[in-house]
Amino acid sequence: MSSTPVVEIGPHAPSGDEVRQVARDRARVRLSSAARSALAAGRASVETLATGADPAYGVSTGFGALATRHIPAKARTQLQRSLIRSHAAGTGPEVEPEIVRALMTLRLRTLATGRTGVRTVTAETLADLLNSGITPVVGEYGSLGCSGDLAPLSHIALALMGEGEVRDASGQRVPAGQALPAAGIEPLVLEEKEGLALINGTDGMLAHLLLACHDLQQLLITADIAGAMSVEALLGTDRAFAAELQALRPHPGQAVAAENMMALLADSPIVASHRGPECTRVQDAYSLRCAPQVAGAARDTLAHARTVAERELVSVIDNPVVLPDGRVESNGNFHGAPVGYVLDFLAVAVADLASIAERRTDRMLDVARSHGLPAFLAEDPGVDSGHMIAQYTQAAIVSELKRMATPASVDSIPSSAMQEDHVSMGWAAGRKLRGGLDGLRRVLAVEILTAARALDLRAPLEPAPATGAVVRAVRERVPGPGPDRHLAPDIEAVVDLVASGAVVAAAQRETPLR
Questions:
Q1: DSSP for 157-180?
Q2: Residue of 86, 191, 192, 208 with fewest CB within 10 Å of its CB?
Q3: Pathway membership of this protein (predicted)?
């Protein structure tokens, strides 16, 4: 019987994939010996500063616009506790546990660098919280994406103190003061700088980015599959996807998307059936012919976003920060612009992928453009409506995704009495990208459901081995063509197939895809 995987947390770990394992698969975490050494050294610098006569931000002063207030030593524990209580001001719907767990893991990674100056026990307690399956309750609204994701991180720090609400290992919402002792965890009493170090990071934005990059990669392959199925269903050609044509415009993502579509359409009897001189059509519509250009641009956008994520994974985000020589200096690395920009950029790509998928679906339903398919793929058009309203559902989602593509990162609202006068809104960019990915998943599911029905209606001609495998996977959950039936369960079944990776797996059993 395999044991639960353990992810080591240190100054240069974990990787993005390991963060995902902790967030989604409940992998355990462990501080490395290098992390423990770094934590001890960083803490020594803060303690030296705490006993000195010079004011140090977050150690012996207030915060934000109150940074000019000197705090005597006897009040500094209260200073840290008050900081967390006042900043835990999030509201709105509860953020998904996987995002919160990713956020916690990323903050632990920064603490493990030793550059934040927290005690080893503080990092250990955060690790214990993850390993016990306790997830603080975080509200969706509250972060401006500058000075870090203050409100979300404050709710996590509040739980470390034994306050606020959490989800226990069974998923029940309970007071932290009840959950921590039940798990054998002693609540923290924060010391100098620790409250600030726990909340002054861009970990929430990065959590959204890391999980989104993983999910979008699978959806990009799914988009190639859906596009190939629609090309077949609409009696399109694969000639536009040839490698020599793609090489004329050498964007790497475009080459991958075209290669995938060629592989998916290989040995297709449907494509072969209209390849001869009797076919009078010169070229396909843009939504078919340009699929690799759109999906390829999205791939290249994702590659850029991953580069940013990789840089953030080796960054130290805190203010003030402990430098290698022991100095503690203020800085602006907590500003979320680098992450916010790419979160917004990905939202644009997501909206456009969904838009082109909806256009292909609409072509399959239009008797004037579908090349022989019945109107709306209905059994008895007029009596039956077929997939008419499934396309409406796509259109509604695509419209919403276009609104979500409006960048959050171009907005800024000054805060903290104008001390924090420019903010990134990166957390908001992450939240809307998460919604956008769900919308794209559903739009692609409708295209696959519709294309599978259209391919069945092309019988006795058979689809390609790879696209045919996807049709069979759909048919394991959804019946084939027939009179109208309740369509929502069919859509949800294919959404589940897309989300689980079953659609990609079915195609990949026949041909490699990337």
A1: HHHHTT-SEEE-TTS-EEEHHHHH
A2: 86
A3: Amino-acid degradation; L-histidine degradation into L-glutamate; N-formimidoyl-L-glutamate from L-histidine: step 1/3
